[in-house]
Amino acid sequence: MYTINMGLLIAIEGDDYVGKTTVAVPGLRATLSDCGFPVLVSREPGGSPEAEQIRQEIFTKAQAGTSQEELARLFNRARAIHLQQVIKPFLGEKKEKQGVVILDRYMDSTRVYQGLEGQLPMETIYELEKEFVDGFFPELTFVLYFPKEKLRKLMEIRQQLANEEMGSDHRDKTVWDDSALEIHEKRQEYYLQLAEIAKKHGEKRLFHFIDASLSPFEIIQKLTVRTGEFLNGSNALNLPINFISAVTNSLNKLRASLFYIQLERQWKKQQLLLEKQGV
């Protein structure tokens, strides 16, 4: 069992259908929890009853064509509530408590959707972040992406499989679900620019980019190992033992779990469809 001497905020980012919610977030939670860390998983927009109400307001107003600035303000307002009601009570105001929060989207999604894609000036985004987030940045940001040559086919197949497996009512229907493939391609380009944008803004943040076309095991392995490397490198572990060995044990347990078996079954269906299409 391991403990850490800090609060760790991890954001999982990327376009729809790259596996944030189904693979990355639950997979990383499973391996870190198995190592003994207190782990909280949440999502944005939402994460608390009050913020979830704003989530629905966002989707309704986006469908009605409200301005990008109003959407950005709503996202950040929900984020501030989420921080105060859920994240900071778990991690502490200065992340002084021992624990890990894994978020399914955070501030970088607003930078992409409302800023880069919606053409809201980044200075406006930064002003809203200063007002509502006040520098509560993630220590680690993982961006999931599809290789460019596979993006179109994978998007089509992932949408098809999601509807078959879960039903069309499983996900919140949003205006962004109706995006053309060309928009998904451009959106991914924006996500891949996030590290450089943060650097230009003077933010000392760590980004890792994960190929979402890999098998679920490979994705979870990369997420967990990168997290372990960060903890080892920042001397955040309270035990002077190589954390990577614990990560290996956790990954082996994960592979035998029902959660992972179901993921692998879905991934194999995807691979068969790709093969039929010559990808």
Describe this structure in words.
This protein has 279 residues and is α/β, with parallel strands linked by helices. The longest helix has 24 residues.
Main sheet: strand order? 2-3-1-4-5
Average pLDDT score: 91
Roughly what percent helix?
Answer: 55-70%
Say what oligomer this is: single chain
Order of helices and strands: EHEHHEHHEHHHEHHH
Low-confidence stretches: none
User: What kind of sheet is the major sheet?
Assistant: 5 strands, parallel
Distance between the termini: 43 Å
Q: Decide which structural class fits the backbone.
A: alpha/beta
| Count of runs of 4 or more consecutive helical residues | 11
Gyration radius over CA = 19 Å
How are the SSEs ordered, and which strands pair?
Elements lengths: L6 E7 L6 H15 L4 E5 L5 H15 L4 H24 L7 E6 L2 H11 L4 H11 L7 E6 L5 H16 L14 H11 L2 H7 L5 E6 L4 H18 L9 H13 L2 H19 L3
Parallel strand pairs: 1-3, 1-4, 2-3, 4-5
Helix pairs in contact: 1-9, 1-10, 2-3, 3-4, 3-5, 4-5, 4-7, 6-11, 9-10
